[in-house]
């Protein structure tokens, strides 16, 4: 499976959990820590992200940046 | 440093559009307004029309839309955003013009302006965010509130005898001959967001061809006003809002004109 990862801006995240619902892999979860504004923010908790961008598309605060392996890289890895 | 190692050779497939400013959004967690802003700005970026677009901000929760959208913006009086957009379009006919309005703005105080703008067939895009409540002022009943919906001014639920029926302004607008493209979308799941993006893109394409008014309703959520969590709003939208406000195109080009 193509591997991906997300970078979450913990300061703009408001912990609305819409991305957690949208993630088909269940790789996101709320952290136990809070950010400067007092919200529990979302973090990548499992290493099964495929870079499908679903979480980033529904994120109201545009806090998520998604990275994905290119196809050549994937072929090389396999 | 550690992140750079993790991202080793991966390519960026999604990031915040450059047409959104870096300001912290004042919206409540999970608000549909912010998603709509983001998608509008993504379309602006993809069509490369940042220099050629003018937006009109309304009064309501999205009153500070001009702080977040990095394009030319104009604030309008309450309910008059479509009238102001008309003026802008007539003075600058080569620019893309859109008005961004909520349900208190467009369906209550601005009903007359909206209907006449669409009836004149002004060549603008109207984005209508419908969450069935007055979010900014503290969750009062809006014309679009559902029957039985509890708000701060209808604490026992909206009742027909006292408050009348919810207003389906999009259906009303679809009857007018000036309307070219009328659609109802949502922004609560990735799929619906993608459809909304497509609708916005179509609307700007039609505007380029000077076809007439495009009207996009977005059935949105209001976790603070509905007094539920953002996660629960997804269920609420699907169970209560969509049966009354069904998603889909109400008027598409090529269909018989009314």
SSE layout:
The complex is a heterodimer of chains A (78) and B (258).
Chain A: E1 4-8, H1 18-22, E2 28-34, E3 40-44, H2 54-58, E4 64-68, H3 71-77
Chain B: H1 2-6, E1 11-14, H2 32-47, E2 53-57, H3 65-68, E3 72-75, H4 81-91, E4 96-102, H5 103-109, H6 111-119, E5 125-130, E6 133-134, E7 140-141, H7 160-163, H8 169-174, E8 179-186, H9 190-208, E9 213-219, H10 223-226, H11 230-244, E10 248-251
Parallel strand pairs in B: 2-3, 2-4, 4-5, 5-9, 8-9
Antiparallel strand pairs in B: 6-7, 8-10
Helix pairs in contact in B: 2-9, 5-6
Q: Multimeric state of these chains? A: heterodimer
Helix/sheet category of chain A: alpha+beta
Corresponding CATH superfamily of chain B: Thiamin diphosphate (ThDP)-binding fold, Pyr/PP domains
What structural class do helix, strand and pairing data of chain B support? alpha/beta
Euclidean distance between termini CA atoms of chain A: 9 Å
Classify the helix fraction of chain B into a percent range.
25-40%
Distance between the termini of chain B: 62 Å
Q: Using the coordinates above, name the CATH class of chain A.
A: Alpha Beta
How does the major sheet of chain A shape up?
A: 2 strands, antiparallel
List the helices and strands of chain B in order: HEHEHEHEHHEEEHHEHEHHE
Mean pLDDT of chain B: 92
CATH top-level class of chain B: Alpha Beta
Low-confidence stretches of chain A: none
Can I get a quick summary?
The complex is a heterodimer of chains A (78) and B (258). With 78 residues, chain A is α+β, with helices and mostly antiparallel strands.
């Amino acid at each position: 499976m193509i591997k991906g990862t997300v970078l979450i801006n913990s300061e703009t995240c408001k912990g609305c959990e819409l991305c957690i619902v949208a993630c088909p892999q269940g790789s996101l979860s709320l952290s136990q820590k809070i950010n400067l504004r007092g919200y529990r923010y979302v973090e990548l908790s499992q290493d099964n992200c495929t870079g499908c961008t679903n979480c980033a598309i529904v994120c109201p605060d545009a806090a998520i940046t998604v990275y994905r392996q290119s196809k050549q890289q994937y072929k090389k890895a396999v | 440093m550690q992140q750079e190692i993790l991202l080793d050779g991966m390519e960026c497939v999604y990031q915040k559009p450059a047409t959104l400013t870096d300001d912290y959004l004042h919206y409540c967690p999970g608000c549909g307004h912010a998603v709509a802003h983001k998608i509008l700005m993504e379309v602006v970026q993809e069509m490369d029309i940042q220099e050629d677009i003018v937006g009109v901000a309304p009064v309501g929760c999205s009153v500070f839309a001009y702080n977040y959208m990095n394009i030319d913006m104009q604030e309008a009086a309450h309910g008059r955003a479509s009238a102001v957009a008309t003026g802008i379009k007539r003075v600058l006919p080569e620019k893309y013009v859109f008005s961004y309005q909520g349900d208190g703005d467009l369906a209550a105080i601005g009903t007359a302006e909206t209907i006449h703008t669409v009836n004149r067939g002004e060549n603008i895009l109207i984005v209508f965010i419908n969450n069935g409540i007055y979010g900014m002022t503290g969750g009062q009943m809006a014309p679009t509130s559902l029957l039985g919906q509890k708000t701060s001014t209808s604490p026992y639920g909206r009742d027909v005898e006292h408050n009348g029926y919810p207003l389906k302004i999009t259906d009303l607008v679809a009857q007018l001959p000036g309307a070219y493209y009328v659609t109802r979308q949502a922004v609560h799941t990735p799929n619906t967001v993608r459809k909304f993006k497509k609708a916005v893109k179509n609307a700007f394409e039609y505007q380029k061809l000077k076809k007439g008014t495009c009207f996009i309703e977005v059935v949105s959520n209001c976790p603070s006003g509905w007094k539920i969590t953002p996660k629960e709003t997804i269920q609420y939208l699907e169970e209560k809002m969509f049966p009354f406000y069904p998603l889909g195109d109400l008027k598409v080009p090529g269909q018989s004109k009314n």
